[in-house]
Amino acid sequence: MPHRQSLSALNRMLATGGISSTEITTHFLDRIEKNQQLNAFVSVDREQTLARAQQADHSRRNERNLNLKGLPVALKDIFCTQDLLTSCGSRILSNFVSPYDATVVERLDKDGFFVLGKTNMDEFAMGSSNESSYFGPVLNPWNTARVPGGSSGGSAAAVSARLAPAAIGTDTGGSIRQPAAFCGLTGLKPSYGRISRYGMVAYASSLDQAGPITQSAEDAALLLQTMAGFDSRDSTSLDTAVPDYLSALNTGLENVRLGIPKEFLDPSIDPEVLSTIETALQEFEKLGAKLVDIELPNSGAGIAAYYVIAPAEASSNLSKFDGVRYGHRASEFSDLLDMYEKSRAEGFGDEVKRRILIGSYALSAGYYDAYYLKAQKVRRIIANDFSQAFKQCDLIAGPTTPSTAFPLGKNLDDPVSMYLNDVFTVPVNLAGLPAISLPAGFDQSGLPIGLQLIGPYLKEANILSAAHAYQKVTDWHQRIPGDYE
Amino acid sequence: MSISKSDVERVARLARIGIEPHEAERYSIDLSNILTLVEQMNKIDTEGIQPMAHPQDITLRLRDDEVKEVNKRDKFQAIAPAVNQGLYLVPKVID
User: A151, A155, A196, A216: which one is catalytic?
Assistant: First the structure.
């Protein structure tokens, strides 16, 4: 059954002719149709996707183009696609068909990965539970009374329930790693600038980064290899060579110094998460890693700085949604100002409005220095802490989240408690570093627990090889929720 | 610090988001709670620290001044709420 195979395994099966793209794609499309209760996908075009699979099979057979992957992946609905709606989880873009494709989509396409469907997400990627989507919440396949995490919740639920062999998400404050942790998956947030942001609807431009949500580090390496690289259309895209992530996978953990920040093993977090992470760290030690105590003394202020910087950037980025050139326009209004105010009031949900308002407030006259400038200074201090820490260690390890997946509705009326979910992931975005979340075990109620590995700038290969070494001796990442086996 | 209802109304006007009076009440509570969280950063001494706007401390690159994009007006206007003869339509601004 194709859904019991990883993306890398399917790739190998395709190469040896053991299976066709059409068989794989049909199988996943059928699974998507049968499992709509999860609400993981917002748009799927069966015929178009099958045509892509048939094309891939055809070119493999007739042109002997064996480099072409011919594999379907699920795509977060934040990436612009000409062939499917790009709604970004929002009413204001619920009718939006992009006139161009995102660079990520073009790069996937070039290697023969095609879009299986667009996945549900928190509105404009603002959220940690996928409950802020205009299209309704996504359910966690491990326990449908729990959230899948957010904002890439649909992407994570889709891979977790094996409705897709892999998915692409985005991570501004933890939006790949936290849902990966909640759904028992491997989620990689690459370094800022590693993957082009062109065609990715912007939330907070100095923090946003695309990355894969997969079943394994090997799968993540495969997709990163395809997506990484310079793009002149993104002014912050890095013009540096892309290493061979796949051949670096087997570097191993011998003598790798793993820094353990005492701030991340805080006794206030869920004790089951804490003990699981400690057990996982012992496993890393057995594989040759050396554990080193380190400090990230200011990481606790990361959330505070993030909730100024991200909303400030969002308030600017989202000002373009005004009902003039595309997207939702209110049907009745008295003048131009009224048209803007009504279109935006109807088009945006509560959490997006909160963040636009707090961002506009932080940037407004009289408050700029106290909030925005202060937050940028704290950001520098947090980034400096990481630089100091990496003098003593090669990678940093800790829990991805302070708890396992929480119940649907639990944090809905309390934005601040929702924000605190991102305490271990946000500092990484502020510093622009690469990090991965990988499955490290389960709590007693059967919910997955994620371990986070953080690396120095552009050291994705080191993170991936450490994760791969752990996944070679554990099977947490291969577990499938009972109802979806 | 707390954000009053009138602060919310002022900021909502700046952000061009229409809000009802009962919403202003609720947002003033939510936003005040968020500000209390945000003010935790005041515990950190940032004297003499350069603000960090971006993870890459580099100058943005420049490109040659040459036309690369083709005219896609029709494609862009095909998704607009209201157009006429190649122009975007909005309510009358000047009498």
Answer: A151
